[in-house]
Every structure is written in structure tokens, then in C-alpha cells.
Amino acid sequence: MGKIKGAIIVDRERCKGCNLCVVACPLDLLTLTPKAVNQKGYHYAEQNNEDLCNGCTSCAIVCPDGCITVYRKKED
Ligand code: SF4
Ligand code: SF4
Q1: What is the SS3 assignment for 71?
Q2: Ligand 2 pocket: which of 65, 69, 70 to mutate (most atoms <8 Å of CB)?
């Protein structure tokens, strides 16, 4: 059976930096930007290691504003 590879896209302009997705990721792959802010002035979430994401969708489920889209694909 192929491994599932995940990828996420964060809508950084809608992110309000609440940190919920950072806490929710079981693989600890999300962080808030240390310096950069979006147009509203919030530090936004970004993935710190694209290779490890398994597409579990925890981050997207907890985001109160639906800022995260998760893609999953099966790898051979
Ligand atoms: S889909 Fe799962 S593994 Fe990937 S960043 Fe979100 S919470 Fe982490
Ligand atoms: S849960 Fe949503 S709003 Fe909160 S930091 Fe993550 S992406 Fe941003």
C-alpha cells in the first residue's frame, strides 16, 4: 500500500495567528512566522517541513476561519 503524502496551503492573509493549528499538528510541522506579518498585522501559520506532512487534516479542522486547505496523494 502506498504511503499518503500530504500538502497544505495556508491562506496567510486570512490567518489571525491564533496558534490553534500549531498545537493541533501531531507532527509539529506548523509554526507562526517569527517576524513576517500579513496585511492585518498578524503572524501567520506556515509549514516548517513539507516532506513530513501526512495529510491528517487536524490543522484544517481546528482552524476557526478555514484558512488551511489540505491535499493528500498516495505515493507509490
Ligand atoms: S495535515 Fe496533519 S500533518 Fe500535515 S500540517 Fe496539518 S496537522 Fe500537520
Ligand atoms: S488555526 Fe487558522 S487562524 Fe489560527 S493560526 Fe492556524 S491558520 Fe491561522
Answers
A1: strand
A2: 65
Q: Work out which ligand 1 atom sits closest to the CA atom of 58.
A: 7
Q: Distance from the CA of 10 to the center of ligand 1, in angstroms?
A: 11
Single pTM value for the model: 0.94
Half-sphere exposure of 18 (CA within 13 A, CB side): 15
pLDDT digits (tens, 9 = 90+) for 9-67: 999 999 999 999 999 999 999 999 999 999 999 999 999 999 999 999 999 999 999 99
Nearest atom in ligand 1 to 47's CA: 5
Q: What domains sit in the chain, N to C, each tagged with a CATH number?
A: 3-75 (3.30.70.20)
